[in-house]
Each structure stands twice: as structure tokens, then as C-alpha cells.
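Worked example 3 (structure in, sequence out).
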């Protein structure tokens, strides 16, 4: 004879129902949205450190593919013969003094002149001469690199 088990009937009636459900699409999408928000926060935090001046310049094209070193100074010349250095609009009379101060502050740093293709040749040469008179020994011109199949201007 079997021993008496008072819980036999209750064991038959009980069914195990899991309290945790397997991870579905919703929980996986939460992880990806968290990662996307983290990347967005990183780009928003770093974006002020990226120098993007609000000066519209269309550079002339050239097959030259060399580049300047990191930490170069940039002088922009627009088609109205305005000079911009460190996001400051300058007259040609003040350009030499500002470039001298920058050359003392960062010795040995090269200067890149970004000149619009419709800027006058005289303004670009004046900027180049001001840089050389300020003691900047390495001056280069920024150009738009020709794409494959693009003809020379």
C-alpha cells in the first residue's frame, strides 16, 4: 500500500506558470535606442570642438592631394575680399597684426589660405604677403580636390 500523501491532489491541480517571459523585440529595441542616444549625446558634446566657420567659400579645384598638418591656422578670403581669421572678420590693415600675434602664440604652425575662386587675386596675394611679413614661414593654399572624371576648371 502506498503511503498517504495529503498533497497529491493539490500537486495535480498546480501548474507552473513562469513569471519571467523571454526577451522580445521590445527589450532588444530598448537596448539599441539607449546606444543610439548615447552616441547622439557624444556627438552633441563633441560638436563645439569641431571648427566649422560660417563662411561660404567655393574653393578652386586642383589635382593636388597633399594636406596640411593638424593644428594649422586657417585664413579665409571670401569673394567680397573679406578676411576671416579665427572666426573674426578683419580688414587688411589689421590682418598683419593679428597674424603676428598668432605666429607668436603658435610658433611653427603653418597657415592655410582658403580663398574663394571668385576672390580677387590681389586680396589673396595681400593675405600671403601679410602672413610672410608676420613671420609665418609655411603658407599654403587650400583647394578642392578633383574627383575622378572631373575635368580641370
Amino acid at each position: 500500500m502506498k503511503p498517504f500523501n495529503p498533497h497529491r491532489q493539490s500537486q495535480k491541480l498546480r501548474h507552473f506558470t513562469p513569471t519571467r517571459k523571454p526577451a522580445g523585440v521590445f527589450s532588444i529595441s530598448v537596448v539599441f535606442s539607449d546606444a543610439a542616444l548615447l552616441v547622439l549625446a557624444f556627438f552633441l558634446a563633441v560638436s563645439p570642438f569641431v571648427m566649422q566657420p560660417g563662411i561660404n567659400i567655393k574653393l578652386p579645384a586642383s589635382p593636388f592631394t597633399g594636406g596640411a598638418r593638424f593644428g594649422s591656422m586657417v585664413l579665409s578670403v571670401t569673394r567680397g575680399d573679406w578676411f576671416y581669421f579665427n572666426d573674426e572678420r578683419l580688414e587688411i590693415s589689421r590682418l598683419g597684426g593679428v597674424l603676428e600675434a598668432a605666429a607668436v602664440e603658435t610658433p611653427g604652425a603653418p597657415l592655410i589660405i582658403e580663398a574663394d575662386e571668385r576672390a580677387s587675386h590681389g586680396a589673396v596675394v595681400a593675405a600671403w604677403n601679410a602672413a610672410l611679413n608676420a613671420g609665418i614661414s609655411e603658407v599654403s593654399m587650400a583647394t578642392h580636390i578633383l574627383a575622378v572624371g572631373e575635368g580641370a576648371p
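Notes: The two ends are 105 Å apart (CA to CA). The first strand starts at residue 61 and ends at 62.
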